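User: Fold this; tokens only.

Assistant: Input:
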Amino acid sequence: MGVAGAVALAAVGFGINSAVAAPSADAVIAEVYGGGGNSGSVLSNDFVELANAGQGSFDLSAYSVQYLPGAPTPASKWQATALTGSVAGGGRYLVQEAAGTGGTTALPTPDVTGAINMSGTTGTVALVSGTDPLTCVTAADCLADKRVKDLVGFGTALVREGSGPAAGASNTASVSRAASSADTDDNAADFTAGAPTPQNSGGTGGTPPTDPPTDPPTDPPTDPPGAVDAKIHDIQGDTRTSPLNGKAVKDVTGIVTGVRAYGSSQGFWVQDPKADDNPRTSEGVLVFTGSTAPTVKVGDSVSLSATVQEYYPGGQSSGIQSTTELTKAAVTVASSGNKLPAPVVLNDRGVPDAFVPSAGGGSIANLPLRPDAYGLDRYASLEGMNVQIGSSPVVGASDEYGEMWVTVKPEQNPTKRGGTLYTGYDEQNSGRLMVQSLIPTATQPFPVANVGDTLRGTTAGPLDYNQFAGTYTIAARTIGTVKSGGIKPEVTAKASGDQATVATYNVENLAPNNPQSKFTALAEGLVDNLRSPDVVALEEIQDNNGATDDGTVAADQTLTKLTDAIAKAGGPRYSWREIDPVNDKDGGEPGGNIRQAFLYNPARVGFTDIKGGDATTGITVTGSGGRTALSASPGRIAPNDPAWNNSRKPLAGQFTFRGKTLFVIANHFNSKGGDQALDSTFQPPVRSSEVQRNRQAILENDFVKQIEAKDSKAAVVVLGDLNDYQFSPAALGLTGNGKDLTDLVNELPVKERYSYVYEGNSQVLDHIMVSPRLAKNADYDVVHINAEFANQTSDHDPQIVRLKP
């Protein structure tokens, strides 16, 4: 709803063209209306109506309707409403979306209800196979995505089919397809504007609603009933939550210090230039306007009447900190062009080393802030205020969403290559801040930066709390320039002829429908940077149709495409071994059926195939001494134990190198999903996902000890993405506290112990562990080619070890 406040983008940057997809002969988008509840509208809700141009019923249960703003930025995200049921041949199907604050008439009973808040004038709607949100932001990319069955851009939408978007959408007009439901894949030609005519599958509706009353509504009162006079520091209070939460306030005055005029979370920040003398209370606050673009400008002096709100995404129990906001604001501009309040400079001296107080696992929301003692309290005491940083090291590369991480404490746990090392649960690194930009990308593209670069000069703007990332961020009104730190992708050392090389690589949801460029980049990394390891344990290999959830579990097409790319890049012709999982039982992206797989170079190593391994049969250890073997190879370890519910099962394989047996176990432990964040309201945060990983670790440790009990000289390599740190209970449990396996990352210099960068923390998630016999001559390397770079093939760095079995 509301006016379109999306940022204007240069056409060349977003590939505007007349690209088309194959016309649909059955289910199509028939009508789109985003003006529901807006000024002048009769209908109270937005809607999308589908039609079936075919004769037979069309099953919609595996589809979704998705929406993208009309002028998307790289950070824009599709919103999805899952569909149910079917649309009859020649029939209609009504998807109700969000309601506005106006309108007098409800839609006909919808076939399904969503909560997407669409623009009344411009946007893109797609009918998509599956419910995973699309990631494309250009017409060419969206129309090339095979999941898109139909797509309609309206107004001035950049993402559309054919020569142009459907014209004429407004608060009182929808865009609708001709009655024949013909689809020529040209939105401008196929759709016309007119009064909205929502119709459901039962045939109810289909005629324009009654016009609204001609008498204008009574003007609302200037101030909400019972409103109290308040200064911004009264609203913010001296804790993380407002003492005026839920109350109406009036005569709130200040200077506008930043405006966010795009997306569905628009608003502006106001700061009182007359501060009180309490360092705990912030003088700035966010005024939330939703999908309506603010009408104020930076430098305006304003007076506000509004309601105070503590916004908790996911609710208070989620642990995500709240943001104090003003909503339903009536704004009076007293003057423009005013000087902004002087920014608070954030630097090493101004941010304490300690990160956050402890509440014994309870909430810190109502504890008095101690900005002189804790970094998180310091930021909370400045929430919404104008802040500034000087030249600062980049510790988290810029990403597709227009975000990067810097630190204002350069000496806090630095890595060898310029990042910030995460060394323990009580070492959260208080200097980390996210930087986002309030500047339209068409005016100034967001800087591209790698870890180790420097964001030079001055970056200034309101200190926001990004609730999606769960972190404080500078909403930059002005942003510095990037000076390269010169890091380059690493190349591992050459192995000698008598060394077997074993690597692990999380290839991030690799599927055949990924761009060929991803396969090429992965192949070049394996060949050029890892020097074609003899054995590679891969994580996140998806099935042959990726995220489409239709029962497919085989991954031979995925692995063929990867091994072909490796051969083309000059590497060996790898063979592979894997076990197809039971459909939808191993977690990961729904429908993707991710699993581990072994690649191996048959010219260097042999794979011992032993029948009997499948998705649900657990393997054992047979024989003894030099005849120790797996009961099945490849095989899975205890796949039916509850430890592996909705998680990847360990894949064990038996290899030979120069006549000697090498046992390799590839892992991908359950993710950290569900854990409370480092800056959670609950301190210390609960790491609930650890329970399952700890059980997984103990089970696998038991299996490793069975091998070592059979053969004290056994050569065992345990590797993969454990989704946990080297100091975690899971890692320690898997190694038997170092007795049964050696976690090789601990053999590196401290400043080199990381394979993943998350929220500016360089940390360990991937591991290679070896049995005592191998540890003596293991030559181990984390090969940094992804995690520190804006241009990533995967979010993980691969690792390799050179061994003498």
